TrEMBL record:
<comment type="function">
    <text>Plays an important role in the de novo pathway of purine nucleotide biosynthesis. Catalyzes the first committed step in the biosynthesis of AMP from IMP.</text>
</comment>
<dbReference type="GO" id="GO:0046040">
    <property type="term" value="P:IMP metabolic process"/>
</dbReference>
<feature type="binding site" description="in other chain">
    <location>
        <position position="210"/>
    </location>
    <ligand>
        <name>IMP</name>
    </ligand>
</feature>
<dbReference type="InterPro" id="IPR027417">
    <property type="entry name" value="P-loop_NTPase"/>
</dbReference>
<feature type="active site" description="Proton donor">
    <location>
        <position position="44"/>
    </location>
</feature>
<keyword id="KW-0460">Magnesium</keyword>
<keyword id="KW-0547">Nucleotide-binding</keyword>
<feature type="binding site">
    <location>
        <begin position="321"/>
        <end position="323"/>
    </location>
    <ligand>
        <name>GTP</name>
    </ligand>
</feature>
<feature type="binding site" description="in other chain">
    <location>
        <position position="225"/>
    </location>
    <ligand>
        <name>IMP</name>
    </ligand>
</feature>
<keyword id="KW-0342">GTP-binding</keyword>
<comment type="pathway">
    <text>Purine metabolism; AMP biosynthesis via de novo pathway; AMP from IMP: step 1/2.</text>
</comment>
<feature type="binding site">
    <location>
        <position position="14"/>
    </location>
    <ligand>
        <name>Mg(2+)</name>
    </ligand>
</feature>
<dbReference type="InterPro" id="IPR018220">
    <property type="entry name" value="Adenylosuccin_syn_GTP-bd"/>
</dbReference>
<dbReference type="Pfam" id="PF00709">
    <property type="entry name" value="Adenylsucc_synt"/>
</dbReference>
<dbReference type="GO" id="GO:0044208">
    <property type="term" value="P:'de novo' AMP biosynthetic process"/>
</dbReference>
<keyword id="KW-0436">Ligase</keyword>
<keyword id="KW-0963">Cytoplasm</keyword>
Amino acid sequence: MRTAQIVIGLGFGDEGKGITTDFLAHQNPESVVIRFSGGQQAAHTVMIDDKKHVHSSFASGALRGLPSYFTEHCTIHPVFLLNEREELRKKNGNVELHIHPLAKVTTPFDVWHNRKNTKNLEHGTCGKGIGATMKRHESPFKLFAVDLIGPRSMLIEKLKGIANYYGCIKGNEIENEIHYFIEAIDQIDWNISGYSYLESFDNLIFEGSQGILLDMDHGVFPHVTYASTTSKNAYEICKLLKIDHIEMYYVTRSYLTRHGNGWMSNEKEIILKNNEEETCTFNEYQKQLRLGDLDYDLLNYALKLDEAYIFASKKNLVVTCMDQTDEKFKTEKLNTKFDAVYGSYSPYSRDFDKMM
């Protein structure tokens, strides 16, 4: 029986999806890990013994040795991908990456627009070009993964069109950016393949991005992401592959987090312990990682929302960072029943203890 395991964040991101994916990869070493939303903006941190890696352009099973697959709902940036590939190789991670032909490609011009546009900065951006890429794909100026292996002359013309679409830089600067971009493309052996690649795996691990409360249809606008962060996309792929046995892994920290601007309930100053390896700290574009007490009403809202998109055979709750505050997680405050509840007592530990 083929099985899918879907990892979803219940909050505003930074819940611990990376270590949960790594936990499942450790249990199921013959699996493939599938990213079905977001892209190079992810910062999913995994630590195995003395090795640490922040997964962005590769899925969070890569350090464990599993291959990665990016669906058409994802974005890719060849320069960021190339840089991370070299990091993973040094750590003996698996750099096998398969990409759907219709995955969206981020260009240097998308990154420029994300970082320079005043409206983007007010609403919040990670500075990796994700929002600009998704917005651009609502226009005729599209660029897909399959274009990277198509005729080079056509790729160059499409890149010129995207540069002019933004009106961001002129003349020789455009030529220089395109030249650098294509240099990166040429250093990558592209595996552009449809969903038939996934049919050879008996277990598929779907790794979500951000959290349900940032979903473009359900978050508090305008501080949302240009992605469906529920299990919607993953479930559609499961139906396409005729996988009926689906296990959900809903992830939350033991406290609330939000990186960047936007509404957040229960925000307060919290003194954290044992968080020396925290990845999502201050950066130029998202600013501070904000904290607050866990909002159980929000957790129940997110769970109820995701039920609208998926029918799961089994549901699990994963609570991370339980050693960082003195607050105790109370499962009785959740109305949804779970088949199991797991707790992680170190923010990047691969060791989980079943709580219930």
